[in-house]
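Spend some time on the protein that follows and explain the fold to me:
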Amino acid sequence: MALFVTSCNQKESNQAGVAGTSQKIEVKEVNQYSLDSLLLNAEALVGKKVIVHGYVTHACKHSGQRCFLADESQKFTLRVEAGGEIESFSQELIGSQIEVTGILQETRMTEAEINDTEKSIKEKEAKGESSAEECETEKANVTQMREWMKSHGKNYYAIYYIDGQKYNEL
């Protein structure tokens, strides 16, 4: 398709050049990614239109305004926000593989926010408001965030998500 557009563009340019004007056709490419490759390259893709595929592991019951995708190994996950042609994500999508087109976005969690989260976890644990298992999971998440910050030389933890424009069930 791109070759066809390019070859048509060259003919138009050559013909238009004879008449003294030129016309330029711009072709924008949208890159497709598996979930793991998207997240590995996320920093460079923020603000860009991407296509990613994954398995729906959760769709919000009340509003349907977001869903979560995972890769086959369940190691990588990504939040997708409904927008564009997407009115909502239905519960029937859970377990299905979909392909989402949208803009990759980033939210940054500062070190101070991570410290506050850790303090809150310790307070819940001391008051018995959370199970030991929940607290251990949350503590592991905080540890993972700090390790990511250290290994990437950042003073924040990056959380990536997609502002969805459309999706197709695969």
